[in-house]
Amino acid sequence: MAQPRLASLDSSMVDRLPAYSQPLFVAKSKKGLTFEAIGQHLGRSEVAVAAMFYGQAQASPEDVEKLAEILEVPKENFEAMMNFPDRGRAGPMPPVEPLIYRLYEIVQNYGYSFKAVMNEKFGDGIMSAICFNSKVEKEVDQAGTEWVVITLRGKWLPFSRF
Predict the structure, then answer these.
(1) How many whole angstroms separate alpha carbon 59 and alpha carbon 80?
(2) HSE on the CB side for 82, CA within 13 Å?
(3) Active-site residue among 12, 60, 105, 153?
(4) Residue 90's pLDDT is what?
(5) Which of 80, 65, 63, 66 is nearest to 23 (CA)?
(6) Identified catalytic residue from 12, 62, 128, 153
(7) Cα pseudo-dihedral 12, 18, 19, 22, rounded to 10
(8) Does residue 76 carry a catalytic annotation?
(9) Which residues of 54-89 are buried (b: 16+ CB within 10 A; e: fewer)?
């Protein structure tokens, strides 16, 4: 069986991330685990697990216990993951990493279109990024071309009149 392709931590990002991020990525690589495999062990989505590794999501005590178990690392190394995250500091704006820049570009190019369609469907408001989940899937069409499917699912929050 082929080894899974594993995401690793770019060394240029280390200084912008929490101290626990680098040891998490090292342990993940040593164990040969994908975010999907870790997510299955934690009962969380692979996107949520990756967000925890980058310090963009808060881990629960159960998450830390299960991470320590699957990565075979003392849980004390990762207790800071239960602190409040400092979101949005992982990279420069606009992003320079090409894949992240493409996601940013999608919002630049289609953001107002997304907004207009959401307003027509839901009224005046915003999509929550707090009451939110996401998933990434792979599709292969009949020609064998691989496609990325990103689902962003957020609670609709109508603006209140005052």
Answers:
(1) 9
(2) 12
(3) 105
(4) 67
(5) 80
(6) 128
(7) -50
(8) no
(9) bbbbebeeebbebbbebbebeeebbeebeeebeeee
Active-site annotation holds for 102 = yes
pLDDT of residue 88: 77
Residue 128 annotated to the active site: yes
pLDDT of residue 13: 84
Find the catalytic residue in 102, 120, 139, 146: 102
Determine the pLDDT at residue 67: 96
- Per-residue pLDDT, 10: 85
Residues of the chain with pLDDT under 70: 1-2, 90
Answer yes or no: are the C-beta atoms of 147 and 139 closer than 8 Å. Answer: yes
Q: Are 53 and 28 in contact (CB under 8 A)?
A: yes
How far is it, in rounded angstroms, from Cα 50 to Cα 72?
Answer: 18
Closest alpha carbon to 39 in 19, 57, 23, 18: 57
pTM comes to 0.83
DSSP annotation string for 108-149: HHHHHHHHHHHHHHH-SEEEEEEEEEEEEEEEE-TT--EEEE
State residue 73's pLDDT score.
Answer: 93
